[in-house]
Amino acid sequence: MTERGRTAFLFDLDGTLVDSVYQHVLAWKEALDAEGIELAVWRIHRKIGMSGGLFTHILLRETGVEITPERVERLSNGHAAAFVRMAGSVRPLPGARELLAYLDSERMPWAIATSGRMETAAHNLAALGVDPARVPVVTRDQVRHAKPDPDLFLTAAERLGVDIRHALVLGDSIWDMIAAQRARALGVGLLSGGYGEDELARAGAFRVYADPADLLRRIDEVAARG
Q1: Where does residue 129 fall: left (phi above 0), alpha (psi -120 to 50 degrees), or beta otherwise?
Q2: Paired sense of beta strands 137-138 and 110-113, if any
Q3: Cross-strand partners of 34
Q4: What is the dihedral of CA 22, 93, 188, 147, to 10 degrees?
Q5: pLDDT number for residue 5
Q6: pLDDT digit string (tens) for 24-61?
Q7: Nearest Cα to 122, choosing from 83, 153, 168, 154?
């Protein structure tokens, strides 16, 4: 268990700590358009939060377009390039920096686990003011499977030296909540990525908050401070 019984926080990144979900949606839209693949923006949004590889395969399966390793690689590279161009508009979500500062002040361990690769995550971490050399950050590059598999959160808990069963997984998508259940952690949902409260609850969230600021105001509902 964590020091003095303090709760460990395992955060998703996009839509949970930084307001970047819609930049990702538009970046995927640009990559798909470049491949001549027509897909409505809302359908893309419903897949944000799962691993890029799984995301790509599901999108291609839904459109009936032939899946080839070359096409998957082009889509992935196209998304990354488009997102990097949009990264200047990414900002921390309300209360995100304050929440992380509070956890530090209370000596509550926390880490970030994102389905994005470091190529795109680095821009969001910089916007948030998080240094991966000082804070455990687990990206898609570092695990075998990303969300909805539990690998990202299990690895984050391991790097913090905590039991995943005594940790909270905080995320904005149903994929985060499914991964939390598979990891045997409690899931806390945030509405800041565009999913609804009922959707997050059905996927396993035991509490749902509007954004990091809302969570910080009611932190006593979820955190054991020892």
Answers
A1: left
A2: parallel
A3: none
A4: 40
A5: 59
A6: 999 999 999 999 998 899 989 988 877 767 777 787 78
A7: 83
